Amino acid sequence: MTAYLLRRFLSLSLSLVAASLVIFLVMEVVPGDPASFMMGINADPQAVAALRTQLGLDEPLPLRYLGWVAGLLQGDFGVSYTYRVPVSELIAERVMISLPLTLYALALSTLIAFPAGILAASRRNSAADLSVMGATQLGVAIPNFWFAMILVLVFAINLRWFSAGGFPGWDAGFWPAIKALTLPAIALALPQASILARVMRSSLIDTLNEDFMRTARAKGLSRGQALRRHALRNALIPVLTIIGLQFSFLLAGGIIIENVFYLPGLGRLAFQAITQRDLIVVRSVVILLVFAVIVVTFLVDLAYALADPRLRRRRT
Amino acid sequence: MPVLSISGLKVDIHGNTVLHDIDLTLDPGQILGVVGESGSGKSMTALSVMQLLPHGSEWSGRIEVAGTDLATLDEPALCQMRGRDVGLIFQEPMTALNPVRTIGDQVAETVRIHTGASRREAFAIAREMLNRVGLGEDRFPLDRFPHDLSGGQRQRVVIAQAIALRPKLLIADEPTTALDVTTQAQILDLLKQLVREENMGLMLITHDLAVVAGLADKIAIMKDGEIVEAGPTREIFTAMRHPYTRALFSASAHVPERGRKTEPGDIPVLSVENVVRDYQQPRRNLFVKPPPFRAVDHVSFEISHGENVGLVGESGCGKSTLARSILALDGLQGGDIRLNGHVFTSAGEGPHPELRARMQVVFQDPYGSFNPRHRVRRLVTEPFHLVRDPPRGTELERRIDRALTEVGLSSSDADKYIHEFSGGQRQRIAIARALIIEPALIVLDEAVSALDVSIRAQILDLLAGLSDRLDLSYLFISHDLSVVRAITDRVLVMKDGKIVEQGETESVFRNPQHPYTQRLVAATPSLEAALAAPAN
Amino acid sequence: MTAASPDRSFLRAALGHPAFVIGFALSLLFIALALVSFVWTPFDPTKLAIANKLKTPTFEHWFGTDHFGRDMFSMIMVGARVSIAVAFVAVGIGMLIGVPLGLYAAARRGSLVDEVIMRGNDLVFAFPSLLLAIMITAVFGPGAVNAIIAIGIFNVPVFARLARGAALSLWTRDFVLAARVAGKTRARISAEHILPNIANLLIVQGTIQFSLAILAEAALAYVGLGAQPPLPSWGRMLADAQTLISLAPHMALFPGFAIIITVLGLNLMGDGLRDLFDPKLRRGR
Where would one find coiled-coil regions in this protein (chain B) (predicted)? Predict the structure, then answer.
């Protein structure tokens, strides 16, 4: 198992290096001169030159890349061009909103999807199955930002149960903060829960058709016992992959949802930075999100190895 | 009291009757063989007794297990019966166990759900049962996972969980079909021993007459959902009252008529010299490259003009890898392969097309051998790709026509799709595809292994006839010794990548020299031997 | 099975599959709306009529008017055009690049090229898709073309992976081995035997990617990075509606319904096709 995990770790580290190269190329090479890109066409040439020096743009590309990476490794993301503060401070502040939001949404999505998927698979073609399938079909089709707007309309504007947006900060206490994140989390979670429920269902149906399920029934297990003891853990393996993918999707999906709810999270930071052409903030947020995705991928691999004893010995 | 008595059993699935009027009885300590070809309803009979029929099935009639009428039991009571009173063993040991749970856990589960046994007690019983089926404590601790075990070992685990509570009735559905012959012999011995010692009744379902002939006290022969004949084994085989019994028997022991032997020419059709084939093994450790696995280890042999050579061995012995190398589908790590004296294989782009046209192949699976989207015409003419100036127009029609009639099909079949044919017919089409280009050698890789015995007999006749008429040579690869014996002149026995013995087929089988060959021959169930043995 | 032509039995099976029929009808409806919008819309979707603003649905304006008095129904018709065009081209790019890459990787399994293609795929998957799309449109400027490229890039690995996986299992099938024994080259086998046998799978995935692309296009347009004004688009209509949501909920409802119904239609059609193509399910019919 160690060899398997070590291999995955190395492969993912390589991905991270490759991703950093791509980001560097897109952000620093493609725009031509990042300094004039950031300041706009009508900028004062002297100011542009000053920014060039500040950004170290006069150095050759490979050195600039290495300098950036070396900084990242020490937690130094550079100084924001618009906010004039270290990017690491900006990010640290925003992560405290985006990460809880993502985890909240992921938890909601899993809590909805598992029972729904299991119910649908175990009563295949029943009314329960058909309603779950119908609901998830609809859930997959709903754009989350539209759903967010409808939630605001119903629960914030009409019923006044929640506020329409903003974030009181964690200083205001745990529950008010959670309350402020609830509508955004629901908006993020619903389409993901639909996907997850469908995957859970089809994975479980595949497992229920396996020979070992027949063995279990032949031993005298009832349908329900066989499902709980033999099918669930096997069915979980493909579901884990989807949960891993959803993490990155939710993290990025936050960009739009945070905008709907005016939440000062990472996504909103990235989006504002893009409109203000603050490339330093943009590339930092992007590399951070890619890093998060890769870490989660590794965790999923770890979970795989725990769920599936065959992997503890085998290669990929 | 019989452990199982079935009378007037009828089963419909979605309105199609799959079983009619089945009557069977089985006494304690007895073995009942249920024999039939695919689709005869033998597995459905087993599932009826377990009450695990597929969705949409309805049954009527009477099934009694140890005197209890199954119709009187509700689902919880049936769950109590399954595993406690009746144990079931399946064909496919590779998939019959849950891959994510340990073997101890799975055997103990049978105990835990039926008795109130504690975890510790259940594991003790599991240990005892695994010892019982020959999986000793030292090599098979309870916390091993199924993927660590071979097929035969897994089948032993399945047996252990089926007998954990010493059921009165054990049902084994083709328990050895997926196993090698030597493993098959061990598993059959184990089952026989368990039946005698525990006084269980065993219902042994199989397609192989030879397996039941040596084992069963009683036999029921099934065809199209009905029992055509049933009775004590010896009586059935000596009297053979029913025509289907006779047909099944003669097909099982079928030896095709073979014509004269051709004079061997100077140059062998195929000559294999010192062939070596290595596989890269997956890395276990990141920093150490494992040594390559040698699948074929310095193999040499020749096939003369018109000669049929058999290649036998158990799974994993390297015979399929050797076949792939001979067909130049994989490169070689050493040695060379010559066809009619010309070097056939070479690394890189493979052999010259015109040379390649001298050798064709027929694979095992009649269902996977054809692109489902093409018509037979296009399927059988695919090898013409190898000819520089392929026939066209009426000449092409004539060739297709001839190939199809050679294999016993009609020329109108050329415009059909492959799904319109049965397994046996598909194998005929595969032979037509190989023949159309008039090769000197055809590699038959388990070409009759997936077929029912009666179809198999027909295909063997076809192959023997073609070899005589067209002076074809065959390399006949199979795990089934009786088939190889029936159709080949010479045989090669392969084990662990090496040819351990070769010689005239009859003399090798009658008087095997190598210990491995002796084991193989001894393990192969034989109808004649079983019937010749004195009654016990 | 009978000797009836496979196409006809497919058609019969398709018409008897309710999910497919509904999905196909809904998809067709939106394609029709988009096509009709080229020659006719009830009103000019770009013409401002402030006096008429924020009208709830009436007989004249079926879906009401927006804050500039533009006819919502006309805007949705023209918006369908943009959505469908962007999604179609993006998925097309994904297929045209991804499928050959996947087929090539499968044909040369384990080779360096295979490794490079697969690692490249992993790399694209490591980027949260929406984020990279936003990044691309940010650097290259917003607009329909860049939206197409951004969405298209994510379709490449999807199809490459799918094609490779499906092709790999076909390469071990006996009929492919038979073709190799018949001396056919890997490229020819890929075209003749592999591609036709994975086409069903690609079509099913294509419809699903198409619906995902419509959602992605709407999201990009919603944050202002999609098609630019004055061309109407569903995503931007929703962005306009957001600030007015308490005042004029209909501005949010109708474009939302348009997206949902289109995506739902495509997904139903994809699921239906999957069932229809699956030989196991068809045999049971």
Answer: none
